[in-house]
Amino acid sequence: MSHGYTPVRKLAATDQVDGFDCGQAALNQFLQRYALVNQKANSAQTYVCCHPGSAPGPGASTEDQAALLGIAGSNRAALSNYRNGKPIGTSRDQYERVGHLLNIHKNLRLLFPQNRDLAYRWMSTRNKAFDNLTPVEVVKEWGFAGLLMVRGYLDRARGV
After folding, report:
1. Whole-angstrom Cα distance, residue 8 to residue 69?
2. How far apart, in whole angstroms, are the C-alpha atoms of residue 35 and residue 143?
3. Within 13 Å, how many C-alpha atoms sit on residue 14's CB side?
4. CB 151 within 8 Å of CB 108
5. How far is CA 8 from CA 41, 50, 54, in A?
6. Could you give the dihedral angle defined by the CA atoms of residues 110, 32, 71 and 60, in that order, rounded to the nearest 10 degrees?
7. What is the pLDDT of residues 130-160, one digit of tens each?
8. CB hemisphere CA count around 149 (13 angstroms)
9. What is the pTM of this model?
10. Which candidate, 29, 61, 80, 103, has a CA 20 to 30 Å from the CA of 11?
């Protein structure tokens, strides 16, 4: 396929579908809530084709997801639990990390309400405010303090 689209492929568990919006609420809801579940149950198959970097598409790498969540990249069980909506742990650090990540997500959605692509790309886009690192790189380099730096930057951008 040409015109800047990715090849047609099956929907994957790593695809970010939260930002998908085709203008049809029922189709959006199906892709976001049911497509992968039905595919895993072999009751339906969903295929996607999109602009590179747009939703649905590969989200953060496994390594990046682990770093953001504060878990070892080798801890496949915790990542699997996270991807399946199960708790990844009960430590205060993990609860606080998830809270900050949700706040970052909320800030990005509020800052870019008409541009979901930008909201979902922002974490992996180089930023002069972070010495030309991506926000994900800041969190990987600085750990929990980096997560607070990214959240603080977005809170200030929103005037909070």
Report:
1. 31
2. 34
3. 10
4. no
5. 21, 8, 14
6. -70
7. 999 999 999 999 999 999 999 999 999 999 8
8. 20
9. 0.60
10. 103
Answer whether 47's CB lies under 8 Å from 8's CB.
yes
Say how far apart CA 143 and CA 68 lie, in whole Å: 8
Read off φ and ψ for residue 101, nearest 5 degrees. -65, -40
Residue 72 · residue 63 · CB < 8 Å: no
Residues 6+ apart with CB under 8 A from 39: 10, 11, 45, 46
How far is residue 143 CA from its own chain's centroid? Answer: 18
pLDDT tens-digit series, residues 122-131: 888 888 999 9
Tokens describing residue 130: 């972070």
The pair of structure tokens assigned to 67 is 């770093």
CB count within 10 Å of CB 121 equals 18
**How long is the chain?**
160
Residues 6+ apart with CB under 8 A from 93: 70, 144
Give 19-62 pLDDT, tens digit per residue: 666 667 777 788 888 888 888 888 888 887 765 544 444 456 77
Q: Could you tell me the end-to-end alpha-carbon distance of the chain, in angstroms, rounded to an integer?
A: 44
